[in-house]
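Thread title: Can someone regenerate the structure for this chain?

I was given the following input by a collaborator and told the matching C-alpha cells would be attached. They weren't. Posting the sequence so someone can regenerate them.
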Amino acid sequence: MNARDETLWRDVLDMAQKARQFLGELPRESLADEELVAYAVVRTLEILGEAASHVRACLQSLFLG
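Best answer:
Regenerated them for you:
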C-alpha cells in the first residue's frame, strides 16, 4: 500500500467516525426531525464515498471482500 492509499483509507475511516459522532445517540426515527444532523451525515458520507472511489480496486477487494 502506498502513501496515497493510506491517506485515502485514513480519510474513509475519519469520515465514518465523523458520521458516527454527528449521529451520537440519536434514534433513527429522530433523524428526519434533525435536518442539520441529517445534512451533516449525508455530506460526510459523500466525502467518504469519494475517497473510497479513489482507492485502487485491488485494495478495495482486499478490505471489503
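The CA atoms of residues 10 and 19 lie 14 Å apart.
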